[in-house]
Amino acid sequence: MLFENIAASEDALYLHSTKLQSEFYTGLFTEQVQKWQDDPNQVAKSARNFKIFYNAPFFPMRPDLQKFKRINWERAVLQRRSQRHFDSRPILFSQLSTLLLLCTGLKKNGKWLKLPPPDPLGHVDMGQLQSCNRALPSGGALYPLELYLLVRRVKGLSPGLYHVNVLFQALSQLVRHDQPMPLAGTIAQDVLFGEPAVVLFVTAVFERTRVKYGARGLRYIMLEAGGLGTQMNLLANAMGLSFCYDGGGYEDRIESLLGIDGEREGLISQLMLGHSKE
Questions:
Q1: What's 121's domain CATH number?
Q2: pTM for the complete prediction?
Q3: Strand locations in the chain, DSSP E?
Q4: Cα–Cα distance between 108 and 110 in angstroms, integer?
Q5: Among candidates 61, 45, 262, which has minimal Cα distance to 166?
Q6: pLDDT band at 120 (very low <50, low <70, confident <90, very high)
Q7: 65 lies in a domain?
C-alpha cells in the first residue's frame, strides 16, 4: 500500500505541475515556448531531428505500395486487433519496409521524400528538408522518437539489430546476429509472445521536445508514441500481419542493448510484429 501511495502521488504531482493553468508551470512554459519560436535556428533544427549511423551498413527499404493501395480500409479497421503467441514464420522485407515507410517516412508536396545517400565526404543535401514533414504527426514538429528493430525472421534481411534511417529510407545494421536473438531477459512475458519476427523498440530523445515544451514535453512524447503504435497496429493487420504492444520490457537491459543511456534517450515501448498462432 505504501508503494502504491507514493506512485500515485508522483503521478499526481507531475500531472498537476505540467498543467497549462498551473501557477508553477505557466510562466516557465510560456517563456520557453516563445523563446524557442523566436529563434529561427531552433525552428530549423526541428526538421533534422533524427539519428544517423553513418558508419553502419544500411539496407534500403523495399516497400510495395501498389499492393498496399488495394487494401479495403473499412475491413482493416473492423479486423484490427492485438495478437500474441507468435509462431516462427518469417515476414517479408517488403512488408516491413511498407510498414516503416507509412509510419516514419518523410513527405513533401504530397510525395515521399527520399534523399540520396551521402557523398564520399559524408555530405547530405539538407536543403531538401525544408517544408517537409513525416507520416506520423509530432508535437511542435519536433520528432523525438527513434525506432530500433530486433530483426529475428525477415526474408531478405539478416537477423540483427537495426535502426530506422528516416533520411535515406533505409535500415542501418548496428549488430548482425548469426541466429535470431532470444527474447528471454529483455521482455518480461517472453513466453506469452512466443517467436515474433521483429521486435520494434521505440525510444525518445527527450531534449528534442523538452527544448520547446520543458517538462510538459513528456506528455507530447507519450502521445506520439501511442500514435505510432496505433498506426502500426492498423497497418500491420491490413497487410495480414499480427501485431501487439508490450509495456513489459526490462528498460535498463534493452537500453544497454541499444547503446543508449536511458536519460538523454530512453526506451518508451516495444512493439511485436509477425504471424500469430491465434
A1: 3.40.109.10
A2: 0.90
A3: 58-60, 91-92, 106-108, 111-113, 133-134, 145-151, 154-155, 160-165, 170-176, 198-205, 242-246, 265-274
A4: 5
A5: 61
A6: low
A7: yes
